[in-house]
## 1
Amino acid sequence: MFFACVALLGIVANTRAADAVTISIACSGVGQELEFCKGAAEAWARKTGHALKIVTPPNDASERLALYQQLLSARSEKIDVLQVDVIWPGLLGSYLLDLRPYAKGAEAQHFAGFIANNSSQGRLVAMPWFANAGLLFYRSDLLQKYGQPVPTTWGELTASARTIQDGERALGNERMWGYVWQGRAYEGLSCNALEWVASHDGGAIVEADGRISINNPRAVLALQAASAWVGSISPTAVLNYAEEESRGVFQAGNAVFMRNWPYAWALAQAEGSVIRGKVGVAVLPKGGGAGRHAATLGGESLAVSKYSQHPAAAADLVLYMTSAGVQKDRALRGSFNPTIAALYQDAEILQANPFMGELLATFTNALARPTTVTGTRYNQVSHHFWNAAHDTLSAKATAEQALARLEQSLKRISRRGTWR
Ligand code: GLC
């Protein structure tokens, strides 16, 4: 099963050091993630004389979690270092090594909130690697051509997307779509749907005090607005899109707007990209009335499995990969947002990624998923939430029906409102 799910990408054999060991690292392959992970890990292997095995778990965050849970509960030694989503320290923390003794204070450079997120009962179970927040990517050339401003509400986005989609199709681009996003039934849909709900002032699914708030009229409006996009300004296939499928459409020049994470910027601006110089980045729109701008907080860390046979070398790799030097390189060439506060003052980084400075507040105020309050039950909560959203988007249920059912399921999962 393990080898069916992962691809062995490269083994750097280097036996310079007498105590050289082989460290296996699992990093995701979304966009350029794998290339950057591999590059930095290989640099570490050359520096230290250790050998390396790069494994690629599935890109889909929910499938990756399932694989990690399977390996860790089987006490597998096959992965030493794991890429860990910002929502997983609570779920996986007991399987991960405390990195504090190895970090020797390096953690102080990182955003305090990220370190708190990665700490579980006083143990630092993962080192922050890059930060994510949901962003709106738009085609600045097309907005200009049609005299449209950057939308600040979902209503404006919908109207602009429609105008430009119709106009471009009439001019011969039959494949043009207004808006692409992540609508597959997985964690990425939970991120999108949380943004819709919060931007309509419909709460955060489960509030910090444990109250299940999702079954409310503002959340209904939010899901209805998104459902109306499907088959209209968004292809029906969006119901099966994760990050890379939506980027594929935008990158090919066939979408006006896209919701995605920062990594999409460097690829849009890459040499040879057909949309190079034609893309802008903005905060995601707000709902009408009491709405506000909302971006889901994402991000990734690196952790060491408690079952690693080589904890010291594995921790050394993690500290190298998350260091300021490597984070700067990743920001410059891959538009991965650093987790080290000082790097947001680095002129080269800000020049390569203007949005990192202009939208700094979007990152610092990004909306956390309700992991703290739901604890080890977060994945179940999210699973029910993305299914409710998917049922609504695919017209299997009305928003009212889906949210009423979701509320019942969450009550059951929480044992009537007590999450702990
Ligand atoms: C990105 C984010 C992560 C989120 C995932 C959803 O990988 O970093 O936090 O859960 O996307 O697809």
## 2
Amino acid sequence: MIITCSQVEKSYKDIKALDQLNLSIEEGTIHGLLGPNGAGKSTLINIFASLIQHDAGTITIDGYSIPSEFQKIKGQMGFIPQDLAIYEDLTAYENIAFFASLYGLKGKEKKQKVLQALEFVGLTDRQKSMVKTFSGGMKRRLNIACGICHEPKLIFFDEPTVGIDPQSRNHILESIKKLNESGKTIIYTTHYMEEAETLCDQISIIDHGKILAEGTVDQLVKLVTDFEMLFVQVKNDESSILDGAGLSSIKGIETVTIEENGFSITHSGHDDLLENIITELKKENLKVVKVESRMPNLEDVFLTLTGRKLRD
Ligand code: ADP
Ligand code: MG
């Protein structure tokens, strides 16, 4: 394990951001930390990067204790913060060169690594432009170049795709895959279930400063697949008039979630299920337009574990 956390605690005054958190991250993986806003993701990776310190518990990175032995592992770690850490009045090249210097790179080697990082994020032709002329997506890419120019073997990305255009987003996700293919371990925080599903080998679901569940997407989904899923679409956007109470009492139905134009249902399978659903909705004068059965996803896992949605 390249990272281990045992019983890690962190409070900000009376807010408990991390609560007896346990976590292991395997070398060479893309490991996702998936959780809603305020779950504690940034707090945790800011602690890994020794930007802040935890109150209790133990953390090791590549065998070194954090924060006491941070200096020994610092050069092997790259950190791409959620809030951009770049200088608007410097050029792209100068920004990366500044971070490269912080990591002790000099002379020819520094120049070569800066150019390599520019190339990697697709900003070579804009290297002499001031950052203040960049789009949001370009700034995000430059932020990444600054964090990886020293070629660390362990890289932390904190929600790197929030608020950017789809093209830059794809570029970033592809870059992360490439870094991983070249042997880097990636820790990736997100509140986007789809990103975690498509990008990550291993996912830890985090909420209220605790890891609720861990595993591959398949393993996590299996936690809730005692149930099957149905989506029932009703006519005229009238799903909101029903509280779902009638449906919940049907035999075999476990949970009912009201969606924009229908209901998501988890159920354990029952012979008369569909008939009973349709009858129940008819009582409320709701007409069923479509019924789809679907595979559970990470959103369902989160909903089952917490009773809440990942995004509100
Ligand atoms: P996430 O990155 O998952 O959105 P954070 O780690 O930023 O979550 O926050 C976890 C909790 O700690 C939240 O309740 C947040 O409001 C609180 N928090 C984070 N940073 C601070 C801070 N500097 N001062 C006070 N509270 C904070
Ligand atoms: Mg955060």
